[in-house]
Design brief:
Number of domains: 2
Shape: rod-shaped
Helix content: 40-55%
Structural class: mainly alpha
Distance between the termini: 55 Å
Number of strands: 2
Largest sheet: 2 strands, antiparallel
Strand content: 5-15%
Length: about 90
């Protein structure tokens, strides 16, 4: 018996009949999964990224500001040439 519980709301269950091969059971299970819409849900969440917490964002922003300040200081001292990018695209 193949059984899957996805997202705590959808159950897909397939039982093997007497004269049925394992490949046919797996095929029926796959069809039921597609019919229930589980496969698109799982694929849709594949590249999902969490929202970073406020504390993590704050420390990242402070680190970025410190790096920018250090870079500006090096540019003013003439140690580093100012990077002239192509601008925003």
């Amino acid at each position: 018996m193949l059984f899957l519980r996805a997202y705590m709301a959808t159950n897909v269950e397939v039982e093997k009949n007497n004269n049925e091969s394992s490949a046919n059971v797996i095929r029926r299970f796959t069809k039921r999964m597609q019919g229930a819409g589980i496969v698109p849900k799982v694929r849709g969440g594949r590249y999902f990224t969490r929202i970073k917490s406020g504390n993590v964002r704050r420390t990242a922003k402070l680190k970025k500001l410190d790096k920018a300040e250090a870079y500006e200081k090096l540019v003013k001292l003439g140690i580093v040439q100012e990077h002239r990018g192509r601008g925003r695209r």
